Amino acid sequence: MGNLLRSNQREAIAILVLAVLLTLYLASHPSGPNTYVITIWANQCLILALAAIAQFFAVIVRGIDLSVGAVMALTNCVASYFVIGSGLDMALGIAAVLAVGVACGLFNGAVVVFGRIQPIVATLATASLFVGLALLLRPTPGGRIDYDLADAFTLDVFGIPTALIIAAAVIVLFWVPLRRTGLGLGLYAVGSSEQAAFQSGMPVPVIRLVSFAMGGLFAGLAGLYFSFVTTTGDAGIGPNYTLNSIAAVVLGGVALRGGVGTLTGAMAGAFILKTIGSLMFFSGLPPLAQPFIEGLILAGAIAIGGAGVLRVRNRLEVFGK
Amino acid sequence: MNTIKQNLPSPDALFPYLGAVLLILGGSYFFPQILGVDYLAQQLQIAAFLGVLALGATVVILLGHIDLSVPWVLAGAAIISTSLVGSGNPALAAAAIPAALLFGVLVGIVNGVGVAILRIPSMVWTLAVNSMLLGVAVLNTGGFNPKGEASPAMTLLATGDLAGIPVAFVVWMAVTGAMALLLKRSGFGRYLSAIGYNEKATFLSGVSTPSVIFAAFAIAGLCSALGGVMLAGYANQAYQSMGDPFLLPTIAAVVIGGTSILGGRGSLIGTVGGVLFITLLTSILSVMQITDAWRNIIFGLIIIVMLLLQTLRRKSQ
After folding, report:
1. How far apart are the C-alpha atoms of B103 and A116, rounded to whole Å?
2. Which residues lie across from B161 on neighbouring strands?
3. What angle do CA B258, B261, B267 make, to 5 degrees?
4. pLDDT score, position A3
5. Stretch 108-167 of chain A: residues touching chain B, C-beta under 8 Å
6. Do A120 and B261 touch (CB under 8 A)?
7. What is the DSSP code string of B205-220?
8. How would residue A304 be classed by pLDDT, with cut points 50, 70 and 90?
9. pLDDT over threshold 70, residue A138
């Protein structure tokens, strides 16, 4: 247990912070801790957590994805057309939504891998493209998602919010197995040192492509879940989620220089970020002061993470690799 | 011969100019008025706003960092300058422009603290600074568009013209010239690229790397603030989120101008070309009167194609 804690120190801290924040939130909420309050909270958190996972897959291979929000907007708009009707229609619709997400991710990956353009610039351009496509589908917000299906994903099962079950499932059924595969290892290898990974015979371009495709898949899932929560399509949801997803992965202990951090950490970071926002809402602070306090807390949290440099023994250590 | 070669801009930097010329020629085939002096002068005036911001961004990107606090430094400077002018007190009104520029430098120094001392990735730290500035602005203005107006000097900066040449363009070129001198003729310019290539090696060579980082972010803040003052002069007011549409085009302009986003390599002359290209592209896309959707799609595609061509050209050398 001690070993497990030590090797996951960053995640452990993030989860501890989250626990404290959540307790504060539930204690300060006017209607107290009940299933309804927790469900609303969990739904908002899960949207950002899925976006943060999308960002995680870009950051872990030493990239960054500025198109996360754009892919969410596009998949949200696709969902507002197709996730309705009979059971089969909706199943096909969901498949189409996720396929669009994966396609966007693969397109990003192809521009980065084959076009040899830095991820930050490549995704800056593709984000404009994806938002354009989303606007083509929904020039103004509209459309509808099947209410029963949306309820099934956004309410609770025996008092446990479905969003939390989904979050747990992503970690247990997707991340834990993935981490143990060659691909999971390859993600970290490419992120730590592309050259070393290449010289060890790893298919670096394939790993990058797959990583971007998975990022697209999760951005698609985020867009889909956003659709379940709002039950409508809106092409303008992107910008906030892109920037918050970056902040979330950093809060969750994922290093922007690649190769360090876990998907669990990224999700925890997203939950923390959203909980701070919700906490603010019920804290009794004047509403106009809230954006400032939110920014201050974000900066403070990141600065504490960076305060490690103040006690390094050798000044050269701060330059990293 | 060698000195001549050294003083010529690199092909990377000339590339966006070629693109801009092609845009004008291509656009004029459909809309002959694009070749008119009025239209082109107006483009130079509009390009100046993006241009001033992009100069600051170039300095930070040469360093290997990025400044995402541009939107609210710009809006903040606009709010400060217009409210000082709007206060009706002549002394305060006279201080409008210097106060706004000082604000930009101060935010730049705050950015520098996070990046140089705390070693927080600039992408995250400047983002956090941006959201704090947003918070302060909302707190101060109550979430409404701030009251105030532009002073005659600000209006002149943004919309005046000197013998047919827009003053905004002249200001942009003057700042470009001053900064080019700074980068070419001082140690600062060399240290900037050196840090962009290899910060550790630069530090080991005895350069005080933190001070270079501070200076670079301060310059970037100054440029963002100047952009804010000019835009406030143009619109004769400041408004919430006036800076948001500028962040990404600024980065795109710098990169299209041949500056590596990883730092170390790039030029101001390339950035000027990149700004002209982006401005003309945006303008021609709006002259075409197509929907927002297609404008976004074409914008994204053309940026990708430009970047691919840059990479291809470099590879073939």
Report:
1. 38
2. B166
3. 35
4. 67
5. 111, 115-118, 120-122, 124-136, 139
6. yes
7. TT--HHHHHHHHHHHH
8. low
9. yes
Instruction: Name the one residue in this structure whose structure tokens are 């194609």.
Output: B305
Domains of chain B: 9-316 (1.10.3470)
Region B46-65: what's the mean pLDDT?
93
pLDDT tens-digit readout, B204-213: 888 888 999 9
Residues B61-85 have pLDDT tens digits of: 999 898 989 999 999 999 999 988 8
Q: Which residues contact A265 (CB under 8 A, 6 or more apart)?
A: A10, A11, A14, A249, A252, A253, A254
Q: Is B95 exposed, middle or buried (0-12, 13-18, 19+ CB in 10 A)?
A: middle
Helix (H) or strand (E) holding A160: strand A160-161
pLDDT by residue (tens digit) across A23-80?
888 888 777 778 888 888 899 999 999 999 999 999 999 888 989 999 999 999 999 8
B127 and chain A in contact, CB less than 8 A:
yes
Task: Answer whether B77's CB lies under 8 Å from B228's CB.
Answer: yes
Task: Tokens for B220, please give them.
Answer: 């970037």
Whole-angstrom CA distances from B251 to A97, A244, B287 are 30, 19, 23
- Overall fold of domain A8-302: ABC transporter involved in vitamin B12 uptake, BtuC (1.10.3470)
CA distance, residue B294 to nearest chain A CA (Å): 6
Least Cα distance to A70 among A128, A23, A115 occurs for: A128
Q: What pLDDT is stored for residue A280 in this prediction?
A: 78
Query: What angle separates helix B11-30 from helix B268-287, to the nearest 10 degrees?
Result: 20
The B residues from 264 to 293 touching A (CB cutoff 8 Å) are 291-293
End-to-end CA distance of chain B: 21
Token duo for residue A30: 């006017």
Residue A109 tokens, joined: 């990956």
Distance spanning both ends of chain A, measured CA to CA: 31
Chain B interface includes A293 (CB < 8 A): yes
Q: Please say if the pLDDT value at position B94 is more than 90.
A: no
Cβ of A129 within 8 Å of Cβ of B143? The answer is no
- On the CB side of A125, CA atoms within 13 Å amount to 27
Token readout for A6 is 């030590």
For residue B169, name the pLDDT band (cuts at 50, 70, 90): very high
Task: For residue B142, give the nearest of A117, A133, A288 by CB distance.
Answer: A288
